[in-house]
Amino acid sequence: MKLLTKEEEAAHYSAVLRGGTIGGVLGLVGGFAGVMAASRRYHTIRSLTIPMKAFLVTSSGTFFGIIAADHASRSFEASRNQSLQYLENREERLRQQELSRMSFKDRALDFMREEKYKIIGVTWIASIIGSFVLVGRNPYLTGQQKIVQARVYAQGLTLAVMCASAAFEIHDQRKGQGLLEAAKKGREANKQVAQQPHHERYEGEDLWKDMVAAEEQKLKQRHQPVYAHEKQEQQKEEQKSEKSEEEQSEQQKAEQPKTEQQ
């Protein structure tokens, strides 16, 4: 890990502050607009107190400000480390090539497997909004009954999505690709790196090692060895050597009776 200089720290701080400020302002504007629109539409929001409405607006600004600041920090780090950016772009290109060879069904299943927790979160939010809209159209229910009904619908849909994600996780664990296996592999890799410390003499010295490791990992996932042709040649040479040794041993056995007769 490269230490930051004072100039780099100042540049990083200004980038994060700029991104967080822009995200916070946009979040406040969006939150204020959302609260005003909801107040005109729903009596429940309209009946809220001013501090509660202010809390909703500021929460929206804080949420978007944190996300924007984190995005600005990552963008600054990527601009500093060009080698890491190259590797990430290379991984993305390999990923796109792999997806282009997959069918639509396989791509959909792969997307649901990779983004299962995001799907759960989005489904939960969408189910809450949709259930409130659906139940709110019933004029025979009171406000408390509508809340209870909407919560039941949202919980049922979220539970169904969680069961589907659990099925995906079980399927990945059977293949050795689950979250637990990935965490174990990550800890083992960190231990190996810690046991074999190495310092680059200049930035990007070990870039080729990372590229080779990434390529090996991709090919291992496809069940293709990196040096398949070399391994085949080695196996052929070993077979030839074994055959030659067997022939020599047979010749020696054939020569032994002749020497005994002499």
From TrEMBL:
Any one GO biological process: mitochondrial respiratory chain complex IV assembly
Regions that span the bilayer: 20-38, 50-69, 117-136
PROSITE patterns xrefs: HIG1
Matching InterPro entries: Hypoxia_induced_domain, Rcf2
Cellular component GO terms held in the UniProt record: mitochondrion
Record-annotated HIG1 domain positions: 89-180
Keywords: Membrane, Transmembrane, Transmembrane helix
Subcellular locations according to the entry: Mitochondrion
Basic and acidic residues: compositionally biased ranges: 197-209, 228-243, 250-262
Stretches for region Disordered: 185-262
Entry keyword annotation includes Membrane: yes
Domain of life, source organism: Eukaryota
Protein known as: Mitochondrial hypoxia responsive domain protein
Species the sequence originates in: Rasamsonia emersonii (strain ATCC 16479 / CBS 393.64 / IMI 116815)
